[in-house]
Structure formats: structure tokens, C-alpha cells
Amino acid sequence: RNSLKHVTPHQLRFICDHCNRRFADKTKLRDHIEEKHLHKTYQCPICFKPSKNRVGLDQHIRNVHKGRPNNKICHHCGKGFPTKVQLESHIRTHTGERPFICE
Predict the structure, then answer these.
(1) 61: which of 8, 33, 46, 49 lies 20 to 30 Å off by Cα?
(2) What is the pTM of this model?
């Protein structure tokens, strides 16, 4: 069976002023405006990876960081990271190292 619920137009009371798209609740409308029209991004507080929306950020944190200890410690500032790769990337913020070549 199809798990999608049929939504009638009167259930979609919240309308985007920018594109007239309709939503069932204020939170969905707000998230839509922030992502599609304001181009707002959300940043992971652990590794600083940007995400287009809150759902993506929550999934990232759950998949990448949850349950992993921040036991890779930066010797410059004492901040902890769950992976060696994240620690190495962070250390470059202190050293100024830029190992990637711009084209």
C-alpha cells in the first residue's frame, strides 16, 4: 500500500509569499523559505560541515558523530574530534596548511 497520505488544499493553509507553494504547517513553510529563498545553511557544530537544511544536518550528526567519542584531540587548542581525518582538517586551521591545488 502507498504510505503517502492524501492532502486536501484546505489542509495546506500556509502559503509561501515567494513562490505560492503550500504547506500544512508553519515549520515546513519556514524551512522551505530558509532553504529555497534565503539560501540559509546549517553548520555542524562538531566538524563544521555545511548542510542545506535542518533534516540534513540532523542526519549528518546522527550518521557521522553519534556514539563516537571525540578522543582525537588537537594539540593546539584541545578540541576533540571523532575521526583522525576531522582532526587533521581542523589542525590546518591552526597551521594555515592548504594541501589542495586550486585550478
Answers:
(1) 33
(2) 0.44
Q: Which residues contact 24 (CB under 8 A, 6 or more apart)?
A: 7, 11, 12, 13, 14
How far is residue 103 CA from its own chain's centroid? 27
- Domain with 52, as residue range(s), is 42-95
SS3 category, 36: helix
The DSSP bridge pattern shows strands 22-23 and 14-15 to be antiparallel
**What confidence tens digit (pLDDT) does each residue in 23-38 have?**
999 999 998 898 888 8
Q: How many domains would you assign to the chain?
A: 1
Would residue 28 count as lying in a domain?
Answer: no
